[in-house]
Amino acid sequence: MRELRVRAVLCDMDGTLVDSNALVDEMWNGFADELGLDATEVRAFAHGRPSRATIARYVSDPSEIDGWLDRIHQMEASRFDAVVEIAGAAAFTSALPTGRWAVVTSALARPARARLEAVGITPPSILIGADDVAAGKPDPEGFARAARELGVEGRDCVVFEDTDAGVRAGQAAGCTVVVVGPNRSEATAGLPRVADMTQMHARTEGERIVLTLPSGD
Asked: Annotated active-site positions, please?
């Protein structure tokens, strides 16, 4: 087993704590179909990025961007039937000390809290959503802000992420990054990883959170 000793834990949400792939795929498939786009390409670009960034890649008219954004956000805020917990996520987050962990997500903050609650995870006091930052992942702003609000340096944090954009954002914020799930790419090469959160264990020793995970890649 491998141990990481940190002062705070920063978690992505979709794909890390919550499996909302079915909902996300439905949203972007509909977007692609209406605009005559390649749905596979759109989904790949959208993964881990704020909705506005994805829409703006394919739509140039500002009013159309805003209209699509409203539709996407409405789905994010109201559709929870296809959302489930990533295995072990609720148990792992409940083992973390209060005030020592945060969520940094490309979803809007309010729907993100509702999505966490829908799968049995109590949202942390600090949750940074797409509407809380000027630049989304892979920009480090969200993780840097979460660390700052927790009163720690990025180097004293571990980030749990499943996407290339999120991995790069965590690294740019100076954090240790653990990959969650099957994503293997240039961005994730050589990083510690877990299949899901059942492989993570946390305990507190003074000011440090001790995390144990499998040592193999």
From this structure: 12, 14
